[in-house]
Predict the structure of Phage late control D family protein.
Amino acid sequence: MADGTSNDSKLRASRPTLRVDGREHPTLASGLLELCIVETAQGLYRCEATFGNWGPKDGETGFLYFDRSVLDFGKPFEVRLGTQDVLFEGRITGLEAGFPESASPTLTVLAEDRLQDLRMTRRTATYENATDEDVLRQLAGKHGLTAEVEVPGPKHPVLAQVNQSDLAFLRERCRALGAELWVEGRTLKAKARASRSSGQPLKLGRGNELMSFTVLADLAGQRSSVTVGGWNVAEKDAIACEAGPSVLGAELEKDESGASLLASKLAERKEAVVHAAPMSVPEAQARADAHFRQQARRFVVGRGTAQTDAKLRVGARVELTGLGPLFSGKYHLAEVKHLFDGARGLRTELVAERVGLGKAS
């Protein structure tokens, strides 16, 4: 196992690169005191960066950034690992001044990615004879974004957006289908987890790339099956669609699912969802599948700290090693937080999910 002290030294020596309005600012990067970049599966990634705001400027000593020539509202703000790997890309939405006791003044930049446009646009609208993919593309176009979406699902007679922000509405539609929503640059993306996390997983070894980790396998939130009920308007008949462990497919690999352990160690627990009100069998089945997957993926949840890598992004797969037969294996990153400060340097906190538990040796 690698020595923890050497890892910490490497982290303290690392410092992110900053770009404002397309230009690299080495002086700004050297004055960085703290950094926090937060990514979740809900989209709308955000960044907070705190800088020292007192020093020599134009032959005098005073505030460095209050003239807003460098840091100003609406300016593109990027954080990179080195010169190529982007950790965050967004626009400045807030400036916070700090005047601590017995310390120099600071300025904190608050930035959000392009989903901020959708969060700040609220509307009431209806979409007729449209799939969810159609709606995603339509709303992306209204915000000047290119759409790259792979969202399976039925065509709906009508979808209603009632006094909701565009972001809240799209999040709701993606949850109904088990899809994840995010933006890269000016491209709105929505994909199922399996499609988003294709490719070889990034390997993180305990005591090396993975500095610390705590993981919990919990049956409390698991169900043997999920049934979604509704009413088929065209057929004038009741709808009842069920989803179980089979919808996990290859995601489970050779592990044991929470539903299987629940049935064998406690008892079968079935759940009925009656508030969704689907109007067709395909819509009800999609909701049942998505609801079951969402619960199943929270069976094994780990939280830890790793050495920062640009590949550690929400949606990525990682292979964690050195955790024993139950918990070693492939995980999906559901939340990522890149952090920097003068004491510990650059590191990444993560939340990783897994649908199954490894076999006991």
